[in-house]
Amino acid sequence: MIEVKKLVKRFGLKTILRGLNFSVEPGEFVALLGPNGAGKTTFLRILATLSRPSLGDVKIAGHHLPADAAQVRAKLGVVSHMPLLYPDLTAEENLRFYARMYGIGNMEARISEVLEMVGLENRRKDLVRTFSRGMQQRLAIGRAVIHDPEVMLFDEPYTGLDQDASEMLDEVLRSVAAEGRTVVMTSHDLARAEDLATRFDILSRGVITASATQKELKQTNLLAFYKQALAD
Amino acid sequence: MQNKPVLLTILDAASIIVLGIATYLALVFAPTEAVMGQVQRVFYFHIGTAWVGLLGFVIAAVAGVAYLITKDSRWDRFEVAAVEVSTVFFFITIVLGSIWARPAWNTWWTWDPRLTTAAITELIYIAYFMLRKGIEDPEKRARFGAVYTLLGGISAPITFMVIRLFRTIHPIVIGSANANQEKMSMTGDMKIAFFFGLFAFTVIFIDLIWHRIRLGSLEEKVEQLKLKVSM
Amino acid sequence: MMDKKTATIDSRPQTMNRPSSIVHRPSFVKATLAIVQKDLSAEFRSFELISAMLVFSLLVIIIFNFALELDIKVRESVTSGVLWTTFAFAGTLGLNRSMSVEKDRGCMDGLLLAPVDRSVIYFGKAISNLIFMLIVEVIVLPVYSMLYNVNLFRLDLLGVILLGSIGYAAVGTLLSTMSAQTRTREVLLPILLFPVAMPVLLASVKACNGLLTGAEFSEVLTPLNLLIVYDVIFIAIAFMVFDFVVEE
Lengths: 232, 231, 248
Known about the structure:
The complex is a heterotrimer of chains A (about 230), B (about 230) and C (about 250). Chain A is of the alpha/beta class. Chain A has nine helices and ten strands. Chain A has one domain: Rossmann fold. Chain A has helices spanning about 40-45, 70-75, 90-100, 105-115, 135-145, 165-180, 190-195, 215, 220-230, and strands at about 1-10, 15-25, 30-35, 55-60, 65, 75-80, 150-155, 180-185, 200-205, 205-215. Chain C has one domain (about 30-40, about 45-245). Chain C has helices spanning about 5-10, 30-45, 50-70, 70-105, 105-115, 120-150, 155-180, 190-195, 200-210, 215-245. The two termini of chain C are about 40 Å apart. Classes of the chains: A alpha/beta (about 230), B mainly alpha (about 230), C mainly alpha (about 250).
């Protein structure tokens, strides 16, 4: 579903990603872990078509980046730590706007369906500015799945959420966003990542240094694996 | 480390020599203008600096477009060099113009198309430096800089055309002048000083741009070395 | 409580080859209109941007009244200058606000993630910005007419103001997208915009002045032509370079 070969990203003279290789099979849920400044967000922004690769080959759902960016975007849902919602519009209007940008047919039915999925059907006519952080993040997930994307990208989705809200978000992420989709997530929260993902990749100094599936990890825990990978 | 190219050293020497000759031609060789007197001599440098100033802004816009197409940082360095050198020359032009204007029109400044456009153009390129200063990522800085020089390069001539609708008292030196405008006529010796001035400033301009581009690539080297050390 | 319900709704087969996508990439016009409508409905709910522009405009006009001693004789010749100064300053206020709405909560990324051409975003934002400017102008003109007892609500004048506002919004939208990505943000926009938009402002002042002082039409025609030339050139350029301003 996602295939990245020898990806290099430079900002001026600084090289953030140094020949990164990465691939995700359909249906996998990959957690990208790594210290700050390792290039996780940069990498995710490249997958999201928001940033151009300096060198290397990126293929998502059969389309090359950046050449076929528009086709890729139609199949891509992104949830970041910012909600990407307009505070002066209602929940419903926000979704309607994005539905129109994606050219979704049978729009109203889809909006109701999505609102129900993220548990906000009662607040559909309320302004987003009145929502709590957790509710905004749930609506952000609704926004990201409105066009039923094949690939989901989560960039630190838990940032700024308390324990309760995080748990709530967990459920929505699992049931709405991840179900039946291919997912790549970056996170600092090892415990949550361990819970959700089927594979763990460690990104350090611009390359993937280690990778393990959930099954392989059964014996050791994720924290030990993570520390081991960074120590090498 | 890069050594200074021999040709650049030769060009340095040539710049100093032609500047000396141009000064001699302007201050001694050229005859005193009948109407305006000695102060008219400022004109030979005024035109020379104005010419390279404009040339630099055109070059910058072209380099900007070339950068947007190729994304080659050498074009960016060329663009910055051209804008920087031209901004200085243009400033000199405006100062020299004021010195000339004081006795000729009895005022330091007048809101005539050329003067006003010159001032606005100068402001465009000051804004250009402020824009570049506000951006951290060198690649984005280069891209935005290129877009802005392009906008500035197209807007400045239109500004000139618009301001010309409000009237002018600036003399038109070469080419057709309107009958009602003050026209300056040049004798043969004046023309020699005039054209040599243009030539001299072109040489100096090329020399300075070359230095600035070289400085730019040295800066980049230093950055690279710093990154290596911090690794 | 919700996962049970959602599980039934969203229980799709695990096969990744979905037969038909529900995305039909929208046409250029439809997507542009979506952005404009989004901006308008958000604005008509809060009136943050328009009210700020309006109050600011009135304050500027009041200051000019005392600064220039706008008596009958002076008034005629400076009216168009006062108006365009007001519009220009109020315009940067609106442009800044309109862009920070997109930038602050990452909504710009949301726009960039949509499967539409980048120029859709440019035209959508430019049209919204133009509409905000026009709304403010349409309110300021009669107020000014009342305060100074001159009739500014004339069709020919409105035409010139429309042409000027188009050029101003066209360049302003491009430059506000740039300035929003710099460290100095709001401060930088007028510094970038005013010198580049100088032809629009000057030509508009000249043309409006001509109309107000009852000059011959031929005298108004030249600045009018220059305005049109500027509008066409700068819309075309902004259309071509907008990609470079939003990519990373």
